[in-house]
């Protein structure tokens, strides 16, 4: 994670990490979590916030309470240089669809589409070492952190039972899969990612839920963000888009089998995954889509697949993951880059416009921040954005957790439903 702080200094943690950060998280600190140990960055938000909301006919963006001109991506890009540090936040699937001129479901007026906070100071944790970071003229103030972090011994968070219920029945999902297979056979599109919301009542503490979920799921791209209207708990393992200078890369995921903990059984499952015609076809089509998306903003001939179809294990599943890299074309701006890549190919399908039109008519509800984008963006334009899959949206005593899967002509409706249920284990344990 390269955020280039202006000032950095070692900081002794007063208690076990990450549990000692409970109080700061409850006060709205932004947490980008990168693995089972809780490594990552805990950012203290500055007073500056950028938000976009749907008015019923257009997106309206506010920066610090004032309307910002331009589309949401243009408003975000123009706001970045006004603050020395990074911005941490998220954007919704529907906002990304509008920016890319793709069909999407109707939204209620007032719906939040993006929320980014400028970060003034942060605590960077790697293993047993921590540093205080700041980006402004003044070095980080240890007193801010000493009073915010708990010094006593911190217990392991108690698990919060969640009774997740799908928005539609297994029979509904099987019928939707069959309809997609027919559309594919008729040539309407090649692959589509069909998603289902699961819901539960939730009156607990999002911080405790996050601490427990991170410990179980060990997500490479986890996050807990307070977006004002809702808490966003992300347990993603998929990199949507990263940029460092002229280098761009994405790591799409397609292809899933369970991880049981039995070494021989899991090895055989991984071998079967890499050889499965349906999984390989689905992954290849999404890989081509991501290559095409990056190719629209890359130097000619620079797009390449550096690590095709690698099997990566996670606590409950194994996935096929590829890495696509490219060199950005000269003077590539943030708005054009985001419009090219978002929404991610692995959570839409190919071709994007036809698939998004079908999904807008089919899925049970708008996706919201699920399948949008989440992470940090620096004033330089460097960024690290995860694809918020395995993500819960918590608001008003309710929790919504989506799960999805890619559908091809070879898809088995029963197997697709089983995959959705498997993916809910990331949060239910």
How would you explain this protein's 3D organization?
With 429 residues, this protein is α+β, with helices and mostly antiparallel strands. It has a single domain (7-153, 165-428), classed as Anthranilate synthase (4-Layer Sandwich). The protein is built from twelve helices and 22 strands. The protein has a 22-stranded antiparallel sheet that branches. The longest helix is centred in the middle third of the chain and has 19 residues, at 277-295. The mean pLDDT is 92.
List the helices and strands and how they pair.
Layout: E1 7-10, H1 22-26, E2 30-33, E3 40-54, E4 59-63, E5 66-68, H2 72-79, E6 87-91, H3 93-99, E7 112-126, E8 129-134, H4 142-146, E9 165-166, H5 170-185, E10 191-201, H6 206-217, E11 221-226, E12 231-236, E13 239-244, E14 247-251, E15 253-258, H7 263-275, H8 277-295, E16 304-313, E17 317-327, H9 334-341, E18 349-350, H10 352-362, E19 373-377, E20 383-386, E21 391-395, E22 398-407, H11 413-423, H12 425-428
Antiparallel strand pairs: 1-8, 2-3, 2-11, 3-4, 3-7, 4-5, 6-7, 6-19, 7-8, 9-10, 10-18, 10-22, 11-12, 12-21, 13-14, 13-20, 14-17, 15-17, 16-17, 19-20, 21-22
């Amino acid at each position: 994670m390269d955020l280039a702080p202006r000032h950095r200094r070692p900081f002794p943690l007063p208690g076990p990490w990450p549990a000692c950060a409970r109080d700061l998280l409850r006060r709205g600190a932004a947490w980008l979590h990168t693995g089972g140990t809780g490594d990552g960055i805990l950012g203290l938000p500055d007073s500056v916030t950028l938000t976009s909301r749907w008015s019923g006919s257009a997106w309206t963006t506010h920066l610090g309470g004032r309307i910002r001109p331009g589309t949401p991506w243009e408003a975000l890009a123009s706001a970045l240089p006004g603050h020395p540090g990074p911005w941490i936040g998220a954007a919704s699937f529907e906002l990304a669809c509008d920016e890319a001129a793709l069909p999407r479901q109707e939204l209620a007026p007032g719906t939040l589409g993006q929320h980014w906070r400028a970060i003034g100071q942060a605590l960077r944790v790697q293993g047993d070492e921590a540093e205080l970071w700041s980006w402004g003229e003044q070095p980080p103030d240890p007193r801010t952190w000493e009073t915010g972090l708990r010094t006593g011994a911190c217990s392991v968070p108690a698990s919060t039972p969640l009774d997740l219920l799908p928005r539609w029945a297994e029979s509904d999902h099987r019928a939707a899969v069959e309809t997609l297979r027919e559309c594919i056979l008729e040539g309407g599109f090649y692959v589509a990612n069909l998603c289902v919301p699961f819901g539960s009542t939730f009156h607990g503490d999002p911080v405790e839920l996050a601490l427990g979920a991170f410990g179980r799921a060990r997500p490479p791209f986890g996050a807990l963000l307070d977006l004002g209207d809702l808490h966003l708990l992300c347990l993603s393992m998929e990199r949507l888009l990263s940029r460092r200078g002229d280098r761009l890369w994405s790591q799409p995921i397609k292809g899933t089998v369970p991880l049981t903990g039995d070494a021989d059984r899991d090895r055989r499952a991984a071998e079967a995954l890499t050889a499965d015609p349906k999984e390989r076809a689905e992954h290849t089509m999404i890989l081509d889509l991501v290559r095409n998306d990056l190719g629209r903003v890359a130097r000619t001939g620079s797009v390449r697949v550096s690590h095709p179809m690698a099997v990566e294990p996670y606590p409950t599943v194994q996935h096929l993951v590829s890495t696509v890299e490219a060199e950005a074309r000269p003077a590539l701006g943030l708005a054009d880059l985001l419009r090219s890549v978002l929404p991610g190919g692995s959570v839409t399908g190919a071709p994007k416009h036809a698939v998004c039109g079908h999904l807008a008519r089919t899925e049970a509800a708008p996706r919201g921040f699920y399948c949008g984008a989440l992470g940090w963006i620096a004033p330089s334009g460097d960024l690290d954005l995860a694809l918020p899959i395995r993500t819960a949206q918590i608001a008003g005593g309710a929790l919504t957790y989506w799960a999805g899967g890619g559908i091809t002509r070879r898809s088995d409706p029963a197997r697709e439903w089983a995959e959705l249920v498997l993916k809910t284990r990331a949060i239910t344990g």
